[in-house]
Amino acid sequence: xxxxxxxxxxxxxxxxxxxxxxxxxxxxxxxxxxxxxxxxxxxxxxxxxxxxxxxxxxxxxxxxxxxxxxxxxxxxxxxxxxxxxxxxxxxxxxxxxxxxxxxxxxxxxxxxxxxxxxxxxxxxxxxxxxxxxxxxxxxxxxxxxxxxxxxxxxxxxxxxxxx
Length: 163
What we know:
Blueprint: E1 3-7, H1 13-26, H2 38-45, E2 54-59, E3 62-71, E4 81-88, H3 97-111, E5 116-122, H4 126-134, E6 138-149, E7 152-162
Parallel strand pairs: 4-5
Antiparallel strand pairs: 1-2, 2-3, 3-4, 5-7, 6-7
């Protein structure tokens, strides 16, 4: 069977929710504090369309991770800017899947004619920072003590990639 990167579909929602909830409960990659239900993630899923892709990395028939380009801001003047997210199932981390998804989602952004991709990364997420820098993202903003999780305030770093 091997590996496959493809567009996510609704049948992927339970495992996408599982991956996201693991990150919510164990990392600072998301500022959600409480796990989400599949129904909540279905509302989130509905925002992905022909303009904003949501892709999954499937390995041996199992979804091992996902990446998406979301609307950056709702104002029309931001329509050519998107926000990138990448999440990997804990059983599949450190296998290069994040890199494969990163390459694919940047290419999807290029194909969709986005001008800029933004990522908001907590300052303690060294793996994500290094991955973004590897792909040419540049630090363009540092907001101090912006989010609160696990009993502490965290800085948010904004990285940008111009296509």
